[in-house]
Structures are given as structure tokens and as C-alpha cells.
Amino acid sequence: GYYHATTQETTQLELAQAVGRILYEKGLIKEKEPKQVPLERVDGMMRSYGLPLLGRYLFASNSRSVATRAKDVLGWVPKAPSIWDVLEQDVADAVEALGSK
To answer: Highest taxon of the source (predicted)?
Structure first.
């Protein structure tokens, strides 16, 4: 089986809103709120990988990972910082990496 080690749950919308706010505050985008993208456009996003609906599964679907079994059976306790603790630095690092290409 598969074991997912997660420290918390979040939605793609919450994450998109937070990243949008960070990029907006850095002056990198004009609007901080996420925009809806038509499903037809999403379907075309990853066609070059040979999987016509890959974009739909990556960007327009819901997937939950909860570490219930790891916690209950293995006694796993999350120790790393939460995504919200590191998001601003992660976004800054990604922007810097993209700028160097």
C-alpha cells in the first residue's frame, strides 16, 4: 500500500490565494485573486506529455492525503514546518530560479 505523510490539509484554492497574495505583494502580478480557467483549456495544458487529460487530473481535480494510518499505527508525529510557514520563501525561491533561466 501507499503511505502519505502529511502535516495538514489544504485546498488548491487556499494555496492559489496565498501564492497570489505573495506574488501580488512582490509586484509580480496585477491581481492577487485566482482566476477560473475553462476545463477545455486545462485539458490542453499537458497534451505534449502524451496524456490528453493529464492537465485535468493535475490542476482540476481533488486529492486528499491524510496520514491517519501513519499516526495511528506507526505513531508518526509531524515535526516539519507547515506549508504556511515556508510558502513565502518557497515562492521567492521559485521566482528566483525562474528568473535565472
So the answer is: Eukaryota
